[in-house]
Amino acid sequence: MESLPARIESLEGELAVLHHQLADPAFYRHPDNVVLVTKRLAEIEAQHAQAFERWEHLESIAAAS
Question: What is the pTM for the complete model shown?
Answer without folding.
Answer: 0.85
